[in-house]
Amino acid sequence: MSQALSPERVRADVAELLDCDPAELAPDENLFDRGLDSVRIMTLVERWRAAGVGTLEFPDLAEQPELAHWTALLTGGGAA
Question: For a Cys staple, 69 with which of 2, 33, 36, 64, CB 3.0–4.6 Å?
Answer without folding.
Answer: 64
